[in-house]
């Protein structure tokens, strides 16, 4: 399989997993009465334990390699805490304060930030296909998640968390170039989840919560841990390693499309706004393809 195709499938697959996880997160908040301050540390820590055990069995002591030099340790702290873990908290907090749709809209401001960072890093202007693909993606995401109703209101707290979440997405897409070049993605994710889970557990003092999940709550937690963390981040970051952050973040728009489909299955009607949004996302994928052909010519 070509590297570009593999990277596209991995990042899109990660987006699908995030879309499913976001919908499950909203269910846990609205139907199961969970709190993001309680759920996120548990989610991160359990995902970290799963990946760490896997890495320790498969790779032995190599799992500790990212901590052997100051540069690698520093990069891992920035990537794992300010990128991966903080993004997880802010995304779920945005869902809790508003909806999964609003959280998706705000998080998907990140392509604009990533494009700016990449252009500065490469000392070049963005290509016409890149600009139009981002515009199409943002329009499509907005239409799909709002069903074409622009009166969607977003509380100030949710707005702040969502924009900061987009910034964290930019960090974990653009910052770990050195780490991704030297270490397996699964090792980086294991440490990121473990660090974030432990840090947030102490910051939010989760032992003070009296909440005890029922059977459906436990199933929901298992789902967001395995699908939303273990699978989603590992697939997505491996895809970014294959095709780069600019293209990876665009294929990651599979997330809101998946969330919209799940919402439709749960009974929300498919509107004209949804249809136009899907057309925009499809057109965005065509623009990405044309951009690749132009670069290879």
Automatic annotation (TrEMBL):
Sequence intervals crossing the membrane:
38-55, 76-92, 98-120, 127-146, 152-172, 179-203, 215-236, 248-266, 272-290
Q: Which UniProt keywords apply?
A: Membrane, Transmembrane, Transmembrane helix
Instruction: Give the GO cellular component terms, alphabetically.
Output: membrane
Transferase found in the keyword field: no
Look up the domain of life of the source: Bacteria
Q: Has keyword Transmembrane?
A: yes
The UniProt entry's sequence similarity note says: Belongs to the EamA transporter family.
Protein's recorded name: DMT family transporter
């Amino acid at each position: 399989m070509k590297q570009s195709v593999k990277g596209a499938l991995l990042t899109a697959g990660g987006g699908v997993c995030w879309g499913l996880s976001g919908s499950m997160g909203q269910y846990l908040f609205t139907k199961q009465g969970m709190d993001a301050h309680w759920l996120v540390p548990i989610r991160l820590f359990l995902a970290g334990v799963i990946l760490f055990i896997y890495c320790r069995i498969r790779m032995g002591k190599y799992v500790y390699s990212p901590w052997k030099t100051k540069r690698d340790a520093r990069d891992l702290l920035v990537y794992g805490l300010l990128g991966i873990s903080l993004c997880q908290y802010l995304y779920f907090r945005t869902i809790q304060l508003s909806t999964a749709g609003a959280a998706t809209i705000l998080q998907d401001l990140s392509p604009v930030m990533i494009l700016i960072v990449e252009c500065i890093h490469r000392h070049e202007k963005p290509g016409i296909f890149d600009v139009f693909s981002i515009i199409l993606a943002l329009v499509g995401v907005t239409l799909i998640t709002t069903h074409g109703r622009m009166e969607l209101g977003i509380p100030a707290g949710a707005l702040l968390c969502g924009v900061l979440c987009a910034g964290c997405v930019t960090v974990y897409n653009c910052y770990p170039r050195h780490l991704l070049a030297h270490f397996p993605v699964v090792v980086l994710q294991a440490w990121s989840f473990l660090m974030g889970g432990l840090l947030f557990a102490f910051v939010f003092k989760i032992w003070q919560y009296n909440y005890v999940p029922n059977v459906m709550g436990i199933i929901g937690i298992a789902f967001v841990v395995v699908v939303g963390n273990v699978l989603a981040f590992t697939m997505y970051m491996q895809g970014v390693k294959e095709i780069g952050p600019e293209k990876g973040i665009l294929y990651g728009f599979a997330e809101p499309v998946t969330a919209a489909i799940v919402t439709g299955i749960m009974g929300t009607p498919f509107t004209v706004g949804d249809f136009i949004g899907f057309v925009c996302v499809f057109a965005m994928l065509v623009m990405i393809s044309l951009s690749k052909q132009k670069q290879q010519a």
